[in-house]
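Forwarding these from the shared drive since the link keeps breaking.
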Amino acid sequence: MKYLGVTIRFKDLSDDNKEIMIALLDSLSFEGITELEGSVIAYIPVEQYNRKELENLLKTDNIIQKVEIESEEEIEEKNWNQEWEKNFDPVIVDNLCAIRAPFHPEFKNFKYVINIEPKMSFGTGHHETTSLMVSAMLKMDFANKAVLDMGCGTGLLAILASKMGAKEIVAIDIDKWAYENTLENMERNKVKMHIIEGGEESIPDKSFDVLLANINRNILIQQSQSYSNHLKENGTLLLSGILEEDIPVVLKTFNGLGFSSVQIQSKGNWQMIELKKQV
């Protein structure tokens, strides 16, 4: 299969801008990213590439002025799994949860061990937003709860919820690669959950005790009404993919829907907000 390597150069080079870009590309059909000094190369099958779609995506996060599509070069398919094995180290969160790949040694003496074959999906625990979500979850009670994981990526958060005792779990991602990866990781971890390929329109007609959404500010705000509609009264909403400067607009949106802020946790410039739906 022929792939296209799309080089995106940063006019304003900062770790935050690069992380935002990687998160945005994850929502399209890109299947791998190589980080370089001042740029990233994103890989996508030639027949799936749509430059206009990419440009529109960049505009949604108001960072189009900070980046530019520099080149589009056709390349041969990479061995993506081999690339991941070179760069994916185990992750330990709060000395309670170990996140490992099949090629890592077995872990013992951790309350929760999650086995993830990451492939090209977002959510390995390495990114600050994922580890913030995991850390917040480890302090919660999931016993017999109904949980919705929006933008599930690898399925890591949904799998953790299951291991923590959730009785019903729905994991949704609009990206086909993430959907398939979550299916594989569900089987790998011997847990049960309902996995859906789609967006907010795919949320089942029911209410949940806990809703997890580690996406980005614009999508969180765009889908805020759906989150409110599908969360029980006194239900818990965990949000991440948010930068420090995004907090006021995110809180304003969700406060306007009847949510109250419980806590805000930070890692670097990335934030996790825990909200409670008011009665």
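-- next protein --
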Amino acid sequence: MADLIPFDDRDGSIWLDGKLVPWREARLHVLSHGLHYASCVFEGERVYDGQVFKLTEHSQRLVDSAILLDMKLPYSAAEIDAATREVVRANNCGDAYVRPIAWRGSEMMGVAAQAAKPRLAIATWAWPSYFSPEARNKGIRLAMAKWSRPAPNTAPTKAKATGLYMICTLSKHIAERDGFDDALMLDYRGLIAESTGANIFLVIDGELHTPTPDCFLDGITRRTVIGLARARGYKIIERAIPLADLERTQEVFLTGTAAEVTPVGEIEGRKFTVGAITHALMDDFTALTRGHLNANAA
């Protein structure tokens, strides 16, 4: 931890409210509504060889997430696309991560915040694999989270909102303290949902099973991998998945912007192989993001 470079003390530029500013000057006030009441939405995107993967889908989801939080951004998805490309060029990014984030400002403080103006920032930085190469090669280890994904009538679960990630942080902290890489979260019904920051797939007798995203995000990488799997002729089954189904599962993998396609080798004592289907989809995703596979396959 001692070698980490703080995110508020780096070189480069950040796009903030319509213009590029020096990295260290991209600030918000301590009384910003987004900080106090989680009126904040964000995206996570990957840059491969200088190009942002699925950029417009991410920009549109940011706009839609803001609407779900009753916050209309002053920029269209196309304008956010252009701003993202600008900051990627300014920071000379080859392979990197992009973080657009929108929040209510400091004009009004209290639960109600109709007068607080939405603000938008876009930052990008070099970021290697979310999990270590060693862990990905043999499959990461998941603990069981004690927190559950909330019901859709208790939170705006279709929004990529910061407040929905509090239980993810708590779950991942506990998992890492116990020697695991991440945690598997169940939903409010006790069904398999996702990890703390990625969707999940199970391979059962050659078929791909994945939870129906009715109380968590239908990830952009998730949809991409489903397209890649269909192009290979794999059968995809989206359904409610009870935890007991892990007992008849041969392979497990996660999908997400940060995780990409990451195999799972263990879920609290249950062992899985990093098998042929997982390897095939890992290879296809790498080929797609590097421009070596027809994008129509996804």
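The chain has two domains: 13-125, 133-297. Helices lie at 33-37, 55-68, 77-90, 133-138, 166-177, 220-231, 276-289.

- D.
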